[in-house]
Amino acid sequence: MDVERSPRSAHDFENGGVSMDASEKIDELIARVVDWRGKTLAAVRKAILAADKEVVEEWKWMGSPVWSRGGIIAVGNAHKDKVKLTFMYGAKLADPDKLFNAGFDGNERRAIDFFEGDKVDAPALKKLIRAAIDYNEAKQSKRPVPKAKASTSKKK
User: Which of 29, 75, 90, 149 suits 104 as a labelling partner, its CA being 20 to 30 A distant?
Assistant: First the structure.
């Protein structure tokens, strides 16, 4: 599958005696999920990698694609009925395009659940990825962390 890749991760993984890096593991996952979920995960990945050229792909927690820059940005998973993209500090991010539709019960993480037929809004997702990177960088530099803007309407 022809997919843009981020810089190689420092971690290699063994697969049948062949060393695979995280980007290759994500390629393999997308290729294995042959229905709409694989296509959706590929579109999500493409938008994430296009948002910032320094985003690094990782493979964590026994099989989850993770995208990082200055800390974890988001984790992606293909579930039986959806593709879930969970932002590590989503509750701290402004979401003017209202992409978050899951995980509102926590005080840290937020998620976007993509269901069959949903389109990936790449421009809005890129903005959210850049906001997550800004948040991570602010945390690392000990400068004031950007605060999420209050929403005028609450989702239930």
Answer: 29
Compute φ and ψ for 100, nearest 5 degrees.
-65, 130
Number of domains, the chain: 1
Q: Is the pLDDT of residue 143 over 70?
A: no
Both tokens of 57, joined, read 């792909």
* Two structure tokens written together for 8: 């190689």
Sign, CA dihedral 129-143-7-92, equals negative
**CA–CA gap between residue 111 and residue 74 (Å, rounded):** 9
Is 1 within the bounds of a domain? no
Q: Which domain does 74 fall in, by range?
A: 12-141
Phi, psi of 36 (to 5 degrees): -55, -30
Q: What pLDDT score does 140 carry?
A: 85
Note whether residue 118 is domain-resident.
yes
Q: What is the pLDDT of residues 24-81, one digit of tens each?
A: 999 999 999 999 999 999 999 999 999 999 999 999 988 899 999 999 999 999 999 9
d(CA 99, CA 24): 28
- CATH code for position 38: 3.90.1150.200
pTM of this prediction? 0.80
Nearest-angstrom CA–CA distance, 85 and 102: 10
